[in-house]
Amino acid sequence: MLLNSDRLHSSAKWLLLVATLSLGACASYPPAPASAAKADYSYKIGPGDNLNIVVWRNPELSMNVPVRPDGKMSSPLIDDLDAMGKDPTTLARDIEKELAKFIRDPVVTVIVTGFVGPYSEQIRVVGQAAKPQILAYKQKMTILDVMIAVGGITDFADGNRATILRTAENNAQYRVRLKDLIKNGDVSANVEMKPGDVVIIPQSWF
Fold it and tell me: Which of 18, 55, 98, 162 has the smallest CB count inside 10 Å?
């Protein structure tokens, strides 16, 4: 059985915890800007992507290959070439340099056929989403696109207290009105995403 002093100490710790949570819940973040995508965005290859490598006039060297979990790819005459973080054009030029050791003037095209992207650019949805998950970022992707992909929010979500943690801006945090957007159809609540964004959907207190 706890002594009175222990009970007081335990109660004080509980009150401090509740106060801390309350302050966190009441933290005011600025609304997310409506526009965020960069016009010059170029897709970067990531582990898990599938690549269609076409070597002109060399069909025996053309094939579909996956990018391994270590971010590298292999194909005929090429072992362990770094692919992660490169755009398809840059990777094609790197493959040409490797193939030039064996064939004359290779011309290579790289087409991404399965999109995952590097971890640093993936969109993560956590909390009270119907299906929390990781999504590949796409140019001009909006929070509405993200919500459709994860099946919306749960009945226990406090959608208008949801936030976007923007890793591209030193973890700046912005408020988004998911309830207004999804439940009420308020398109003014729709905002663009940035690569690496984390959508955090809290649970309602009531």
Answer: 18
